[in-house]
Amino acid sequence: MTESTYRIQGATGEWEVIVGLEVHAQITTNAKLFSGAATRFGAEPNTQVSLVDAAMPGMLPVPNRECIRQAVRTGMAIEAQINRWSRFDRKNYFYADLPQGYQISQLYHPIVGEGQIEVTLDEKDPDSATKVIGIERIHVEQDAGKLMHDQHPTRSYVDLNRSGVALMEIVSKPDMRSPAEAGAYVKKLRSILRYVGSCDGNMEEGSMRADVNVSVRRPGEAFGTRTETKNVNSVRFVMAVVEYEANRQVDVLESGGTIVQETRLYDPDRNETRSMRSKEDAHDYRYFPDPDLLPLELDDAFLAECRASLPELPDAKRKRYETALGLSAYNAAVLTAEAETARWFETLIAESARIQGKSESDVAKAASNWLLSELFGALNRLGKDLETSPVSPTQGAELLALVADGTLSGSLAKQVFEIMLETGDTAGKIVEEKGLKQTSDTGAIEAAAAQVIAANADKVEQYRGGKEALFGFFVGQTMKAMGGKANPKVVNEILKTMLG
């Protein structure tokens, strides 16, 4: 764990930034927290609303077991305290998109207690400093609906599709000290949620969003007054909020003003935060235990099932890739950052090992290099991701096998790969149809090499005079004469013999 050296240089000296995040993560489930209504994103307004969600008289909430299970699994993934006894509370406030006049949440007795997440501060350098960010709690609550202000010139409409959607509110401790730390925390938390399968992490769809709490202080002094910027929906915006809000607060304090505890909104077009309302304290919400819901009591069998269902998590997977598969720290970190990437890679090496008759550790290095350089490069160029990749892991494994057995050289493999991207055909089919096999025919290679040597007598003399760097020139010219189909190893051996 390292201490951040990030400081804001004010006119009167240095200031330290204190950041805490409250991340709202929509739980992956087909139904809402207390009703059976659907939760599909993008549905027509008010088509996913039950009588419970609309707060019709006499409707009683019934907890969704899967939502509770996913919250517990998330807590276990961050090594948090799982509270066997927890309770739902009513948070009372009146707003047009909240039909009940209250939100069912957990204030006093959350389902998950303290935990932690370790983040790497420079994701491009896996050997860089790490920091442990404390988690204060995870509680389960229902989402509110949504007001729509752009559907009518003088009226606002209400869409209750989100009303009652199950959320985990993951509350960090105020342990972050820079925009970079806040960004690294959100990325790592999103990665864990996706591995666990408890949230899809799609911030652009609103299924994961952060309330960003920022304050500043002189280094070593007590915490200052914080502001809370609501519903920030990207990692980049979280970092921008921390930077803007911290600098704004320093300017206010250094000009003799005071920071007001308030709720703010972020405007990404102007890259600024604006005041929304003064911050309410807990007593303003008049919390009390929900009388319609019994406390949650978790038994040993339920907890055991939750723990047994957890997948291999990113930190453990990264270490296994380094130790068991022999990958570099950088490759292992990139491959495990997202669950989808790790799954694609593991299918690739499993298929590669099967086709080549080798162990996964024997094929892992070549597979990882190809995935991270060739495939990722092509997908970026095409504006696609692994989910929409024109090349499947099995097709990639076949291509790698043709390189491994000498059928294709590196340059031929690149040609075949480009055709695969365009046509979706397999590497084997393309090699046969296009005649792209690598040749080890020594007679043909010797003839091509002899022609290159004869045409470059001056360079031959320089090479034999000690300018050994010219050897690469002869290799390149011979490969060119062979149309890129010569086996580079054979070319090297023949030229060494012929050049003396």
Total count of helical runs of at least 4 residues: 15
Distance between the termini: 58 Å
Annotation, overall tally of beta strands: 16
- Model regions low in confidence, pLDDT < 50 over at least 5 residues: none
So what's the overall shape? elongated
The helicity comes to 25-40%
SSE order and pairing:
Elements: E1 8-10, E2 13-26, H1 65-77, E3 85-86, E4 89-92, E5 102-105, E6 115-120, E7 130-142, E8 146-148, E9 157-159, E10 166-172, H2 179-196, E11 208-217, E12 227-232, H3 235-254, E13 262-267, E14 272-278, E15 288-289, E16 296-297, H4 300-308, H5 314-323, H6 329-336, H7 339-356, H8 360-382, H9 393-404, H10 410-423, H11 427-434, H12 442-455, H13 457-464, H14 471-481, H15 488-499
Parallel strand pairs: 12-13
Antiparallel strand pairs: 1-2, 2-10, 2-11, 3-16, 4-5, 4-15, 6-7, 7-10, 8-9, 11-12, 13-14
Helix pairs in contact: 1-4, 2-3, 5-6, 7-8, 7-9, 9-10, 12-14, 12-15, 14-15
Describe what you observe in this structure.
This protein has 500 residues and is α+β, with helices and mostly antiparallel strands. It folds into three domains: 8-306, no CATH class; 312-434, no CATH class; 442-499, Arc Repressor Mutant, subunit A (Orthogonal Bundle), CATH 1.10.10. Helices cover 40% and strands 18% of the residues. It contains 15 helices and 16 strands. The strands form four sheets. Strands 1, 2, 6, 7, 10, 11, 12, 13 and 14 form a nine-stranded mixed sheet that branches. The protein has a three-stranded antiparallel sheet with strand order 5-4-15, with no helix packed on it. A hairpin with a 2-residue loop joins strand 1 and strand 2 (13-26). Helix 7 crosses helix 9 (393-404) and helix 12 (442-455) packs across helix 15 (488-499). It starts with 7 loop residues before the first strand and ends with a helix. The model has no long low-confidence stretch (mean pLDDT 92).
